[in-house]
Amino acid sequence: MATLRELKTRIGSVASSEKITGAMKMISSAKVHKFERSLKELLPYKNQIQTIMGHILSSGVDFHSPLIIDREVKHIGVVVYGSDDGLCGAYNLNIFKQLLVELNSLRDKYGKEVKITLYPVGKKIYKACWRLHGETGIEIETVAGVDSKMAGNVVEEFTHGLRDKFSAGEMDLIEVVYMRYYSISRQRLAVDQLFPVKADQLLASTSEATDENQLYIFEPDANEIFNAVLPMFVLSTMQEITIENRASEQAARVMAMQSANDNARKLQEQLQLEYNKLRQQSITTELLDILGGQVDR
User: Fold this and answer.
1) Which residue ranges make up each domain of the chain?
2) Which of 40, 45, 162, 194 is 20 to 30 Å apart from 168, CA to CA?
């Protein structure tokens, strides 16, 4: 049975843990708001690119680009976003589970012999993906400087590297597995196809441009503009995915710290109750000893 001193020490330790988790929650919450602002700042840029794509696509011209070519799928690249740091609950585990589901889906669709190269983004998800090392048809590749905290210029270089692999025919399909951010309490696992760029990704932006498109004259020709703007569209998509993943990671950390904080508070209340009971029992014993001494006299 614990002594009063031991209980007091444990209560102090739990109280300190509660303060630490509370501070970490506040820091992560501030980071979430920072990434929310980044998403809002990126939105006008992406919307403008989509508007341009909408005007071009509704012109009726036949477009040709190596980024939209569908080929027989023999080699697939899968970029899987996770985190570099821990203390974010089951965040990386949930992403890894979704990755396993997607890998099985790809094998069912394109055959068991299809080659798959994984690009884990983040130390924690890299460790999880390493469990797949040695499986038939699966390779794990890392890119120097690429992590969950990479700056915009690194995202651009990484995206260009993937684009070059697809354009050169080294890969026939490239997907991204990540956590899509909706709010601080709501994130959802998502799988987006990066290359080849799907028609519905581009056609989604044509509704506002269709009626006005006849007012535009394209100089140089529409196909050349299309090939210049399409990589910008892909890059903006990758930048958005990167920011959403970082926001989702911090949101998961907020929820994990909130859960830890709640558990610490409950434990502190239980220990305090046990401490009060033991202290009351000690006081009662001392009073009985005093009364017993008086009776003996």
Assistant:
1) 31-254
2) 45
